[in-house]
Amino acid sequence: MSGSRIHILRLFKDESISGAKVDEETFEVDRLGFQEMLEYLSHHEVDYVVTLNTSRLWRSDIVKVLVHRELKKYGVDIRSIEQPQYSIHKKDPSDFLINGLMELLDQYQRLEISLKLGRGRNKKSQQGGYVGGNVALGYKVEKGKKSLVIDERQAKTVQRVFDLKEAYPSWTLTQLAEQLNEDGHRTKQGKKFSKVQVKRILDRKAFYCGLYRYGEITTNGKHQAIL
């Protein structure tokens, strides 16, 4: 980066960050795009991670702390287009106040939208219907309808994950991912599996058995079970 000019090395994208969680076992941000970015940073010299707004990197204080921790590890700072003064190293009180207020406003707007949509989604989820969001591996959204149907190729991958877990209970997530890749299985994006993606599949066992969960609601889903 020289002056105001930025040389873009690579673009990373998450399908969604609204539901980003922290992996309690590894204390890492459970987001595929973010993990791919960290892998890239570990092998390349990078000065900044460029984003439209810091809300594209985190939407909770705990995720913010973890993002800062990982970027500092690689000596990388943040450049935000909408927050040009933002830096993970800056201690200026005025910058802290401005950035904090912007983040609070963003949270307020998301909460307001969530409350408006919540009633309709709760009603549909109580009936076991798909209410939107990321589609789990093994399924696809039926064209013209907001319902899930099985993707036969992906379903075989899901079944293989649980077969391996049952056959080799002591295997780590990394070992499971390596075996999947060796068997020729691929993600929705056609990429090799990582331990984060394998854990995500295992965590959805109830869903793959036919249950549907939305918030605190758990009911029999309208989708066909894979397991």
In spatial order, strands of the major sheet run: 1-2
Total domain units: 2
Return the average pLDDT rounded to an integer: 79
Low-confidence segments, given as residue ranges, are 124-128
Order of helices and strands: EEHEHEHEEHHHHEE
User: CATH topology of the largest domain, which one?
Assistant: Rossmann fold
Portion in beta strands: 5-15%
Protein name: Resolvase
Pfam family, one: Recombinase
Organism: Virgibacillus kapii
Domain Recombinase: 136-227
Question: What can you see in these coordinates?
Answer:
Strand 3, helix 2 and strand 4 (77-80) form a beta-alpha-beta unit. The longest helix is centred in the middle third of the chain and has 34 residues, at 93-126. This protein has seven helices and eight strands; from the N terminus they run ββαβαβαββααααββ. The strands form four sheets. It has a two-stranded antiparallel sheet. Strands 3-4 form a two-stranded parallel ribbon. By secondary structure, it is of the alpha+beta class. Residues 136-227 form the Recombinase domain. It comes from Virgibacillus kapii. It holds the Pfam family Recombinase. InterPro entries: DNA_bind_recomb_sf, DNA_bind_recombinase_dom, Resolv_N, Resolvase-like_N_sf, SSR_resolvase.
Topology:
Layout: E1 21-23, E2 28-30, H1 32-41, E3 48-51, H2 61-73, E4 77-80, H3 93-126, E5 139-141, E6 148-150, H4 152-167, H5 173-182, H6 195-203, H7 205-208, E7 211-214, E8 217-220
Parallel strand pairs: 3-4
Antiparallel strand pairs: 1-2, 5-6, 7-8
